[in-house]
Amino acid sequence: MKSIDVFEHGRLSIGEQGFKQSHWDAFVKLNTVHNNEYFDVLYDGLRFKQYVGVIQVDGLLVHIHPKADKDDSNDKWKDVLLQMLKACGKVKAQTAGNANLKKQHINLLEIYFEYFLKEVDQLIHAGLVKKYRTETSNVKALKGKLDFAGNIRHNLIHKERFYTTHQIYDANHKLHQVLSHALDIVGLFTRATRLNDKCRRTQLAFPEVDRIKPSLQLLESIKINRKTAPYERALELAKLIILNYSPDINHGQQKMIALLFDMNVLWEEYVLRALKKHAQKHPEEMLGVTGQESKTFYGSQRTIRPDIVLKKGDETIIIDTKWKRPTNKAASIEDLRQMYAYARFWLTNKVVLLYPGEYYDSGYKSYPNDNDLNDHETDFHHCKIAMVSVLKDEMLSENLAEDVMGLVVCP
Length: 411
Description:
single chain; alpha+beta; seven-stranded mixed β-sheet; four-stranded mixed β-sheet; 14 helices; 21 strands; 36% helix
């Protein structure tokens, strides 16, 4: 399979690295289905946005890698996505171990497919859950409720049969139907790959169930209870696979699947998890870390949500993560206004805009508004522009939380 490596905010032109007009057409359809969120469409190609991941279509595999600094080496950033997904718990550690991380060309789809197949295999070995369901059909012995009209219609000649509505206790229920549909998608995209044999064996071991095309409403209607608790991770992965296999695009001969992540969201979650882990590791620091803490902003419906609220003793610090490199190390006026609103609503005089990059600390600079002194028990609100290193020796920095704490707590 032909593979192409590109980077966020980069450009891919038709005719470049085997990227054809047919591929461009499929990408445009995918982008249209998702409200033009993934990339900007050019007349002769595409310009990618902050979404990274992998897209497979018509024998072409496109890896979109994150890259916080356009001046950095491309090889430096190729493995960052998988490492972040692993750190955020979106990929199981055993599935994306160190051996996988050292590969130059990692197929993220295969990693998720393998993760899903392992989860389903574990369910099969542990024993699949059965449920009661109602069925109306012909049976050779009378059981359940006899459907008189149906019995006359179907069994006018075959008097030995009964057309009844009865209960069956088996594995043919919605949960298994969704897993089976996800297995079919995995089988479609793992032909001629190392996972083909594993997928076929899993499908053979899985019970026969009714074929369905699950909608978003059906997927959301499936609830996990105590009996089906072991299915939680497999169902989550099945939803991920099904919802990213674009049915609106697959009416033609081309089959397409896209697994993309918003780097703004992933960077926020990664920093939040690192700080929470640091707080648990150092209880003596008395740190409280919360994400997406909400307050009413306007009327009764509009709310305001900073990325991270850090509390150290009586002091509150707001951190807003931005996955971009600020021009000349200066924040935009929109971001500064947003941070001022956070400072006002959380009654704090410390707010921080946190970017990825080489270490940088602007120091806290004030919003000189005399009304703040009259309205609040605080000094002027202060905002800091800070940058923290994401990588160390081409791996995610293990000292990220310590570096962030050093930046936000110091003057």
